[in-house]
UniProtKB/TrEMBL annotation:
One GO molecular-function entry: flavin adenine dinucleotide binding
Residue ranges annotated for the Acyl-CoA oxidase/dehydrogenase middle domain, each copy included: 128-205
Cofactor: FAD
Similarity-based family: Belongs to the acyl-CoA dehydrogenase family.
A Pfam match: Acyl-CoA_dh_1
Keywords for the protein's UniProt record, in alphabetical order: FAD, Flavoprotein, Oxidoreductase
Matching InterPro entries: Acyl-CoA_dehydrogenase, Acyl-CoA_Oxase/DH_mid-dom, Acyl-CoA_Oxase/DH_mid-dom_sf, AcylCo_DH-like_C, AcylCo_DH/oxidase_C, AcylCoA_DH/ox_N_sf, AcylCoA_DH/oxidase_NM_dom_sf
Stated name of the protein: Acyl-CoA dehydrogenase
Domain Acyl-CoA dehydrogenase/oxidase C-terminal: 235-382
Length: 393
């Protein structure tokens, strides 16, 4: 994957095709029997991606020449893909694959790109990012410096041992990015999966259910990795994590914006059709005001996404901006999803529409890629540093 391209007209055209595919094809699968508590089955993923490829919308944010759309242009495409929780899976813009493709494209050597990236871009393989560790074992979570997984050099290999938790998509993945700590500091390795040294202990039952493979607890036992499969240099893992995490946080905002917008459409349609107490629900101030507040929150979320995308397109890591955006957008979309459920009453908490799933997915979104409180704490520390600098002048 080469450098980014900025082409708003092209992005709008791609987004329109993605939106049509998600609305007209993918949405029909939202009650498919192959959707389980740990995400869509591999068979369903393959079927959807086959249709996406035929429609010319598979991995739409990466162009045929290998160039990547700008973050602003990617926003248009990923918001369209998110109009169904299944949409990003179908068109190959879902986490963790989208973030892993971005990282390998930015940091990987030509050989690593050929060996690992090509299969992800084509949609033939899924991936997992092995960073988070079990909290009850004192491992890394929101604080990656607590990482306990070790990497020890042994000739032309590295030997990795440790435990990982909440590893999205590990079950069924063919590519893994493993984070571990050497004497130099954090490291990242690319590995082929499955590998007998990486054992899935269990797949957790979680509130969300959109990501294939679910979220696993994993034991890594004497995993031998050729030295040339390290991303970059030993000790640079946290730097590469930041290259991945800022755009990945924003991509989550893009995708779930689409889902929240769809939930708002469904709730608005319900309120227009449903009658109670002698008039349509939408004519009741309590309901109408909730839908109006949804419009406001969606617009503010959209503006935050575009603002952060513009910052990242300048080449900035955008850690502050992505933290602000992740907090603002996840909280705003949670309010939108909650109001949609409330407007629809009993129907809103049932599986008759996708609204209840959107609510569950966005609730989880407030936690992964950094909980709201961790981002606020990070921002508060920046304010303190800025004030200390001002006071010292």
């Amino acid at each position: 994957m080469s450098e980014t391209q900025q082409n708003p007209a092209l992005a709008r055209e791609i987004a329109a095709r993605v939106e049509a595919f998600v609305r007209n094809v993918v949405a029909l699968y939202e009650h498919d029997a192959r959707l389980g508590s740990h995400g869509p089955s591999e068979d369903l993923v393959t079927e959807l991606r086959t249709k996406a490829k035929a429609a010319g919308v598979l991995t739409p944010h990466i162009l045929p020449d290998g160039s990547h759309l700008s973050q602003r242009d990617t926003a248009a495409v990923l918001k369209a893909s998110g109009l169904s929780p299944l949409g990003p899976v179908a068109v190959n813009t879902m986490a963790p694959d989208e973030g892993n493709m971005y990282l390998i494209g930015k940091v990987g050597s030509p050989d690593l790109k050929a060996r690992f990236l090509a299969a992800l871009v084509s949609g033939d393989a899924r991936s997992a990012f092995f960073m988070t560790e079990p909290a009850d074992e004192g491992g890394a979570g929101s604080d990656p410096s607590m990482m306990k997984t070790t990497a020890v050099r042994d000739g032309d290999h590295w030997v990795v041992n440790g435990r990982k938790a909440f590893i999205t998509g590990a079950q069924g993945a063919k590519v893994g990015i493993v984070m571990a700590k050497s004497d130099d500091g954090a490291c990242m390795f690319l590995v082929e999966l499955p590998d007998p040294a990486i054992r899935i202990d269990r797949v957790l039952d979680t509130i969300d259910s959109s990501m294939p493979g679910g979220h696993s607890v994993v034991t890594i036992d004497d995993l031998r990795i050729p030295a040339d499969q390290m991303l970059g240099q030993s000790g640079e893992g946290f730097k590469y994590a930041q290259i991945r995490l800022s755009p990945a946080r924003l991509s989550h905002c893009m995708r779930w914006y689409g889902s929240a917008a769809r939930a708002h459409e469904i709730a608005s349609n319900y309120a227009f059709r449903r009658e109670a107490f002698g008039r349509k629900l939408i004519d009741h101030e309590g309901v109408g005001f909730m839908l109006a507040e949804n419009m406001i929150d969606l617009k503010q979320a959209e503006l935050m996404i575009d603002w952060c995308a513009d910052v990242l397109d300048t080449g900035s890591l955008g850690t502050v901006e992505s933290s602000m955006t992740k907090v603002a957008v996840s909280e705003a979309l949670m309010r939108v999803a909650d109001r949609c459920v409330q407007v629809m009453g009993g129907t809103g908490v049932s599986g008759d529409t996708v609204v209840e799933q959107v609510y569950r997915e966005i609730r989880a979104f407030r936690i992964y890629d950094g909980p709201t409180e961790v981002h606020k704490w990070s921002l508060a520390k920046k304010i303190k540093r800025d004030q200390a600098m001002v006071q010292s002048v």
